[in-house]
Amino acid sequence: MKDYHRWGRLGLVVTAIIWGSGFTVSSLALTHYSAYQVIALRFSLAFLGLLIWRWPRLKEISQSDLKKGISLGCLLTLAYLCQTYALNFTTASKNAFLTAVNVVMVPFLLYFIYRTHLSKNAIIGACLALVGVGLTSFTKDGVSLSLNIGDYLTLLGAGFFAGHLIYTQIVGQSMATWKIMLIQMGTAATLSWLMVFLNGNGPLNLSMPALAPVVYIGLITTLVGYSLQTHSQRFTSSEEAAIILSTESFWGMVTAMILLAEPLVWQMIIGGGLIFAGVLVTDLKPFK
């Protein structure tokens, strides 16, 4: 079982690297599409990729699978829509930082919903990771302590992300990864296109320069990333998964430096160190 745990943690680290690269590629996609179009396209591509691959096995999906997958898809869509709509009122750096608050939310949600033990190591590790994310996020815009409607929406989205992570842990124990992914991605795609329609976005740009980053986000960041997360969480706890996945901000910073030639500043170095310190505290459990 220890080997499975090790592979589960490694899978989550790879997921964080994939998601981190998605930040940079998403910024390229947003030069061609609206935020809602990017969300709808990424989920649609992930859904279609899985649908083609698993078409002969669709009859294996039960009514119970549908309910669980649709619930996960709704949580995921609500999280992304809150996070995206909040950008109309707050800065991208603050949005990224407040979204990362889900790392701290997870152990407390588990305690209040399931009365699980509040691990001191998980809380300390989550707080270290959160401070680290803050330092890597606020490298350009500076720190503002005042909160507006966009910040509250971002926090609501963080709550949905935390709920999605916890429910993924629960559903993943009794349901095949491909079933979870197919149903939740189909649900998320449907709801996202509804938002595109209600928001009145313009026609889609179908040129290759516009589609290339969206294809990467849809097939690699979304399909591969979320599949790997769902499978890896079978062998880890929700608290540990949340903290390991918080390293995506660090990997996003590294990717931006490599692809966009963004400068390295001292906050990034310290922030990255704190994030990994949070992972180590949670994993090695020094505060027993």
What does this 3D model show about the protein?
This protein is an all-alpha fold and 288 residues long. The chain has one domain. Helix content is 77%, strand content 0%. It is built from twelve helices and no strands. Helix 6 runs parallel beside helix 10, helix 8 packs across helix 9 and helix 10 packs antiparallel against helix 12. The longest helix has 28 residues. The radius of gyration is 18 Å and the shape is globular. The relative contact order is 0.23. The model has no long low-confidence stretch (mean pLDDT 81). InterPro entries: Diverse_Substrate_Transporter, EamA_dom, EmrE-like. It is found in: Cell membrane.
The gist of it:
This protein is mostly helical.
SSE map:
Elements: H1 2-29, H2 35-54, H3 63-86, H4 92-99, H5 102-114, H6 120-137, H7 149-171, H8 177-199, H9 208-232, H10 238-245, H11 248-259, H12 266-284
The geometry reads as globular
What are the segments in which pLDDT stays under 50 over at least 5 consecutive residues? Answer: none
Q: Summarize the main sheet.
A: none
- The termini sit apart by 22 Å
